[in-house]
Amino acid sequence: MGLSSETLELPMDLVTDEILTRLPAKSLMRFKCVSKHWLSVICSKYFSNRFLTVPSPRLYLSLRNHEDKGKSVILSLAPSSSSSTTPSSFVVDHDLTIPRMGGNIVQFFRGFMCYICRSRAHIYNPATRQLVTLPFTRNMIVPRGGDKVVYYYFGHDPINDQYKVVSLISVYSLGGAKVMSKNWVFDLKAGGGGSWRKAALTPPDFSPHQLGVGGGVCIDGVIYYVVWVDYKAVVVSFDVRSEEFNMIQVPPRDGDEDLRRTLNWSLTKNLALLEHGGKVTLFDQTNLKNKGVVALWTLEDAGTKKWSCKSQALKPCQMHLVSGIKFLIRGTTQKGKVILIPKRIFSPYHILCYDLQSNDMTKIEIKGIPDHWFSLHKYNISLHLMFMDQSESVMCWET
């Protein structure tokens, strides 16, 4: 029997689900040139969402040199080994820096990086290297001697497959005695364009607030972030679909009285908002450095505003990992492990991965950072690191 001259064609859904989703995003960007059909498949919403379901552990490190006009780099790091659930090291494999990059990374979500530079929000896709710069929010008059703080939070409505950015603008007078805050919403549209509009649906008890804490998290279409009202922590929730805000009081903590007494706002960095077990969780490291103890506040029910609290002490043999070091909390992995990064850069640099279930802390080396960064004065460098263990995004917004 002779060989058939007919060409075997694979079903496109098989190509999409079993072949293309296994490729790195960088390869997919090249394959868009194969044909118009492949271009339409790779750029489709279905494929973009399907690609997000394929795990791809990766770190993104932003370094900013304040001595050199805020010169910044963004580095991509891959695990040194894929055989372990918790790699012993991550290695720099790509420099993702592009013109106009800079500022502070505040959130990493569904493959997109949200950062603030000169009070403007920027959405960056490290896989496609597309940068979308949002317009300035509407100006608010700052009283003499006062100040203005702008924060941005990024979320997604899974029902309508819609991305939105929320802006919190807080204006306060000298000493912070009189505070005014407003929220604005921006729809990210596939066709580009759009403008800020004032958020409408706020409850009667929605108090003016100031000083957000780090980035927010988006869980099941709701953005959560932490603010401060009368020196007390409050979680704000924003439903991305209905655009309704709510305020959820956090129970009294050990650090509340210290903040009220000293007015040292750096103490607010001891509190970080995480997603753990599918729930909003506050990770309180007030007593970590000195006592090796963390407090976990979990929002059990957002409707009834019910919290549970659990204190957890490190194993004595691991106290040396946290002793005398200031950490920033940078989210959790899909397996619920908390990422802690030292606030200042040093060589050799490392981060910590804290498994809350087994109460085990692991040291992870960071390799490949260019040597000249270690020769700069530590106070002239801003360091931001985000962990992403869901896949990269191949979605593009037209601009």
UniProtKB/TrEMBL annotation:
SUPFAM superfamilies: F-box domain. Signal peptide: none annotated. It comes from the Eukaryota. InterPro entries: F-box-assoc_dom_typ3, F-box-assoc_interact_dom, F-box-like_dom_sf, F-box_dom. Residues 10-51 form the F-box domain. This is F-box domain-containing protein. It comes from Thlaspi arvense (Field penny-cress).
